[in-house]
Amino acid sequence: MKCNQCGQAIPESSKFCASCGSEQVTISVDTNANTWQRTEKYNTVNTALICSSLSLFFSLILGGYLNWVAILLAPISAYFSIINFKASMKKAVLALSFGILGLLFAIINLINMKNAWKTLEELEVKCQEKLEITIADAQLNSFFLNNDLALQQPYKANEYHYSLTEAKVEELVNQRND
Asked: What pTM does this model have?
């Protein structure tokens, strides 16, 4: 050990320097001590960023019924980004903007989906009306039943399968031959 004042070599346990007489202050340092860094207790800006990114992903890429997941994740990301606005402003603003965009795109997709379903329902009604106009006297196909073909052929009748009577079939065949 050396003297703090004059730099002369002195024994480890001495409290004063033998040559200059100055008091020696020793500071012990524990080299095995852990270094602790104080962090924010509830820094959830990364959670906000993940939720908002998922909201944007579900609304833009996947769509469909996953738009509801996007709508649920958007307010969660907005809440967490507002809480952590002071801690990391850039990430919080990014999370908030992704969440708002995800929410808007999800709502737009749901409105488009509703309009598509409405159009399909109207189209189905129009198709039914057209079928009823073209084949007004629809009844069970007597040719199919009279010739015992019902057991040989897989046949299912529903609202879209209409069949003609034998007289109607013969009439159509005669028209085609003429």
From this structure: 0.47
Q: Is 54 exposed, middle or buried (0-12, 13-18, 19+ CB in 10 A)?
A: buried
Phi and psi angles of residue 2, each rounded to the nearest 5 degrees, phi first: -115, 155
Beta bridge partners of residue 139, listed in sequence order: 163
109 close to 63: Cβ distance less than 8 angstroms:
yes
- Please list the ranges in the chain whose pLDDT falls under 50: 136, 138-140, 142, 144, 149-150, 152-159
Cα separations in angstroms, 149 against 17, 80, 144, 158, 174: 121, 68, 6, 18, 23
Distance CA 98, CA 101 (A): 5
For residues 134 and 103, is the Cβ–Cβ distance under 8 A?
A: no
Please count the helices (runs of H) and the strands (runs of E) in the chain. 5, 0
